[in-house]
Amino acid sequence: MISFTVRMRFAQEDRSEIDDILRELTRESRQEPGCMNYIPHRMQEDPDTVLIYEQYTDQKAEEAHRQTPHFRKYAVGGLFQKMLDRNREDLIALV
Questions:
Q1: Which structural domain, as residue segments, surrounds residue 53?
Q2: Which of 28, 44, 48, 79 could bridge across to 70 with cysteines, CB 3.0–4.6 Å?
Q3: How far apart (Å, rounded) are the C-alpha atoms in residues 5 and 19?
């Protein structure tokens, strides 16, 4: 199992557009066969920061996610164009 978070910060004026992009990206990503969890969050103390918790069955499923048309459209063509910074944190499940 592959688990990680992606934290991205956006400008306040982009908040509504980012929410729309995340809704579509989440809907499509959750339908991928290897996607176990895809949960976007807005940080309570900093509403311009988004954290996405992602979990895939294996490395192949994670790589397949990045090759999908919806990832290219909503992440590469949307979120990545608007983000001010980005950080990925890989996780190790304890149980």
A1: 2-91
A2: 28
A3: 17
Sheet with strand 2-9: strands edge to edge: 35-43, 46-56, 2-9, 85-91
Q: What CATH number did the domain enclosing 19 receive? A: 3.30.70.100
Core vs surface per residue 62-84: b (16+ CB within 10 A) or e: bebbeebebbeebbeebbeeebe
Domain count, the chain: 1
Quote the distance between the C-alpha of residue 81 and its chain's center: 14
Q: Exposed/middle/buried for 58, CB within 10 Å: 0-12, 13-18, 19+? A: exposed
- Evaluate if pTM is beyond 0.90: yes
